[in-house]
User: Fold this.
Amino acid sequence: MTSRTTAGPRHNPVLAELATGIGSPQPLGHDSGTLHFTVTAADLEHFTHRLAETAGARLADLFAATGDPPDQVVLNMLWALDADDAYLLIQTQLRGENYPALSDIAPAAFVEECEIFEQFGVRPAGDKPLNRVAVPPQADHDIPRLGAAPRHVDGEVHAPHAVGGHAFEFPFGPVRASAQESLYYGLVTSGEEVVDLYLLTWHKYRGLEWRLQGMLPDAALFYVERAEGLSAVAQAWAFAAAVEHATGLRPDPGASRTRALALELERLYNHAAAIAALCQATGLSVGQAGAEIALERLLRVNAAVFGHRYLFGVVGIGGAQRAPDLGPLQTELPEAVAELRAVCRLLSGTNSFLDRLEATGILTTEQAVRLGLVGPVARAAGVAIDARNQHLQPPYDDVAVHPAQGTTGDVLARYQTFLAEIDESARLISELARRGATAGGTTSPRKAGSGLGWAESPRGESLAYVELDGDGSIRRARLRPASARNWRAFDDACRSQNVFTDIPIIEASFWLTVAGTAR
Amino acid sequence: MTSPVHGPAGLSTTSSHSADPERLADELSRNVQRWFGRSLHIRTIDTGSCAACESEIRLLGAPHYDLHRLGFFFTPAPRHADLLMVTGPGVRAMDPALTKTWTAMPEPKVVVAVGACALGGVYPTDAFTHGAIDKVLPVDVYIPGCPPSPIALLHGLLVAVGRLVDRVGAQPFTTTTTGPAAASPC
Assistant:
């Protein structure tokens, strides 16, 4: 792994102030590209303000862990310093049941504040209503938590939303269309226009972070891949990298290229599936059939190259569990990609298709920044973030990535982002294969440590954080797939002058999974 | 796959494990057309999958597999469904929805558990999940795989059609009872 320095972050004014007040930033784990500070609860609000005002700083995650002593909670606030090629983890030991309301400063923290309340019983100061995220109301007393359950839970399951005038609430789900994941839409409408929309996501919450506690990382990888099966490579890579950063493992360059190959194959099939879903949502069955033919061919390429249609079991701790069979990459993949491009060329010349995408589901740059969005959704809204570019790790320090970027933030911009990324992924696969990709890895060392890992999934930045005990078992694992970030913008996108029939189009353009958020 | 199906005379299920997709498709089509008048309706429900099983089920309708040419259709309404495909390990929070879906389906009906989670190979029985779908519903056909490929799903559907044919033969059309599969789910 490339040896990192903190040269970039040292010039960041906020980090300089942090360093002045409380000492130099410390690297988290080994060569990890992550710095960490410990601040007091009293200082937390101040530093959150400063970071929220800093260009190039983005709230990437907020999560809690059991403290020392165990009846206390440690709040972990993770900022991505995209301009400085670093992540910044701010840790605060909480005393009592309250902490400053961070979502008042950085709105991207709200969903996580709700989650932390459910799992650890601590809540932001004030009487802000919190939503239920993972624990169903009927199972409050039965669901195991990561920490102490809240002593008191409000009867409401969701913060108040706008229902007034002629508007009424139209419940939809959790059982939806065929072969769709379970998700509940609370749809507020006056007839056709989407006045408001909220989601209930607890129906398939499987308690994965709770399950991972006490497991060895090698065994945990099985569950990590299944947190969001359509991002299995990205999430497994992020988790493996977190363990590697915690324990000082370094994947060899060939194994890193194997991971990246699998990741780009994952991006290709996901973007093909998203385009097929866009066609279905717009009623273009010919386009849908064409995109699905390409999708099936891409899945068969995955199986030929790595032995699994969805690329499970490729990433290993310390490297890759399988080497790719490069033959199909040279013969079958170009044909499948050519087929996908041909379909997309036709779609891009079909006005009845483009008209349905244009000005539908608009997200502004300001909204994308405010909510901390990632991936094609953010890039289409003009936010140029891509973990492959801005948080360099092998093999991307040798293989440059040219990320796509849109400006209009509508479904059309997201579709065009998919198209550009299909071309870029195909190019990257050729280059990675030319440089050679191998298997290789090891079992996780039995030692203590903490680390953060990341990878750019088809939906955006996937993150994982681990704390390991001295015997190598997991004390706390945090999984943050891109879906967990981007669903929070779905209601904003649906509200922006859209009607019912736009919702499936917007959902297809986000191309998120419920599994990723209800992990 | 489950034990062999014992359908009425004339129902061909013996080559359900054939590696030849075309023979499998022909067989499936023949049985559906003969017993269900070219129309067998499938309702799917997700009880905590990772989304990969849904992806494979969606591909059943894609041109490579084209389930419609075989007489199968997906339906959004459980009241129109003959066959329930269940993915995921049976997350308990989905119990009410799963029960309502299953009870809303008319007799005769079959339940197909799809994928390793639904078969009990991924999650244990605990406070979050039942661990396997046959803990909550009377499962007729088990389709293994993580996820099962579309061709594996087709094999499973062929077996399920046989089960459904059994039910059709046993259906007491002259009485008002609800039939043998009235066990209380969940």
Q: What stands out?
A: Chain A touches chain B through 43 residues (CB under 8 Å). The mean pLDDT of chain A is 90. The domain at 218-514 of chain A is CATH 1.10.645.10 (Cytochrome-c3 Hydrogenase; chain B). The first strand of chain A starts at residue 26 and ends at 27.
